Amino acid sequence: xxxxxxxxxxxxxxxxxxxxxxxxxxxxxxxxxxxxxxxxxxxxxxxxxxxxxxxxxxxxxxxxxxxxxxxxxxxxxxxxxxxxxxxxxxxxxxxxxxxxxxxxxxxxxxxxxxxxxxxxxxxxxxxxxxxxxxxxxxxxxxxxxxxxxxxxxxxxxxxxxxxxxxxxxxxxxxxxxxxxxxxxxxxxxxxxxxxxxxxxxxxxxxxxxxxxxxxxxxxxxxxxxxxxxxxxxxxxxxxxxxxxxxxxxxxxxxxxxxxxxxxxxxxxxxxxxxxxxxxxxxxxxxxxxxxxxxxxxxxxxxxxxxxxxxxxxxxxxxxxxxxx
Amino acid sequence: xxxxxxxxxxxxxxxxxxxxxxxxxxxxxxxxxxxxxxxxxxxxxxxxxxxxxxxxxxxxxxxxxxxxxxxxxxxxxxxxxxxxxxxxxxxxxxxxxxxxxxxxxxxxxxxxxxxxxxxxxxxxxxxxxxxxxxxxxxxxxxxxxxxxxxxxxxxxxxxxxxxxxxxxxxxxxxxxxxxxxxxxxxxxxxxxxxxxxxxxxxxxxxxxxxxxxxxxxxxxxxxxxxxxxxxxxxxxxxxxxxxxxxxxxxxxxxxxxxxxxxxxxxxxxxxxxxxxxxxxxxxxxxxxxxxxxxxxxxxxxxxxxxxxxxxxxxxxxxxxxxxxx
Lengths: 324, 325
Hints:
The complex is a heterodimer of chains A (324) and B (325). Chain A has 15 helices and no strands. Chain A is globular. With 324 residues, chain A is mostly helical. In chain A, helix 9 runs antiparallel to helix 12. The two termini of chain A are 48 Å apart. Chain B folds into 2 domains: 72 residues, no CATH class; 233 residues, MetI-like (MetI-like fold), CATH 1.10.3720. Chain B is built from 14 helices and no strands. Chain B is globular, with a radius of gyration of 24 Å. The relative contact order of chain B is 0.14. Chains A and B meet through helix 7, helix 8, helix 12, helix 13 and helix 14 of A and helix 1, helix 6, helix 7, helix 10 and helix 11 of B.
């Protein structure tokens, strides 16, 4: 039966029952978006993430308005008479200044760029590598799976901070290296899940059907199987972003990530540690922004998981029902 | 069971060998790098370079160097040699031996805390899904996974040490305090309390999540219904039947985390100024003390591989199904 005969038969059907007319078919994407829109936590996280993205984009603008560059040491206005950093609310410095008289607000805005860039790029690389490795391992099985799965186990079980700082110490710290190192230690988390899913998907009838139609292995892996794995991959990728952001902040905090004076939330905190707790604003603001960002991404990841898989435990859905 | 364990030990040894080889390539045989110069560190003199070249044989063919390097790592007294620090000329093994007690102390205390905290929060959440407890547990978990270790450590220091101390309530010691257990066990625990709490709170979140999902899944299985139908008390059902088989993913995670702390809790040690392997390696990197860095990386890798083997053995004890495979 060809497609045109199906249409012909559909055309012969009696006119639709008026009661059915009000019901519209929805694509899975529409369903997910609809579920997310009713999830207050998801909405708040998206708003927070958008605000931080705006902050990052507007960083040069903020620098322009305040008149302070991110790396400018404002020796004249940025410190008090005894050379101490200014508290928040001081003239011209909304969030105060650091030990060199640099504007903390401007530095935080530029730090947001680093965090988001590392978070998104490292996750993108890790996701692509993880999906490819996972698909190959799960689809082909056998010795290839044995080796790839073992490699992923090893990568997952290693103290990644130690190995990251070793690599950075050998090759010198730079942003691209930091991104690659983070991607390397994250791909296995996705690869392992994709492998497991691919293992079960390859036994399905549609794969057999594709085989019998003469589809090649690559086509089956990436055209037939991959779309079925999109949901878990999206969830994992969303949850990898905060992990990557924390990773970068940690490396920068240890002095092995973004090289000063370029601001990153991590190296701002390491500068703060050198000053001491009297300048509490020097600590609190980078901490706050870092925590807000990672928390928002984690909450969003959880919400996306719930929206993609309504069967899973939905804690917040229960509360919504009660409220309705 | 024996075959399973032997296979795992062989896998572990292969992993260890791969890491040892990678370290060799990275530090000694990277193209365009003079390993003697790297090992010498900052206080470099021609005589020192010659000494190092003689000791390590860097003018020999690479394959011979590799063989000698492997021989130095065979754990036989007299042969095992991790080199000497290029800063104070102490043997690297001595430096590691001084640092390890701190990591063991850190690991013991924080592991007890995070296991108790993580598993109890997870059990509470799983026993009453969607309850207030469960929602509280979710908040705990999400905060834990979103919180970078150094932020929690700095916050604890700020509130519990700095704020309390400037108000005259000096309960917690200042960062950098360390008393060996053998010297004064009470003082030992007192000095380590904040680092323990830091590590435990960060790590416990993972365990709560694992326990909750694993226990929820187990409690839905047929044999749990059977146990309930037999008339066993709820406590017995949950703890004896449910929790036991939910423990396998937790044991895996525990092995990895314990080994990581033993190999150096880098961030926690840096913040609280504890001279364990983690702080030692960070300081060694700063002053280009390569022999110490290499030594600690190798020791940490050994801990991880060993922990994985122990975990696999425990697995077989906990879950009878593993023994057959």
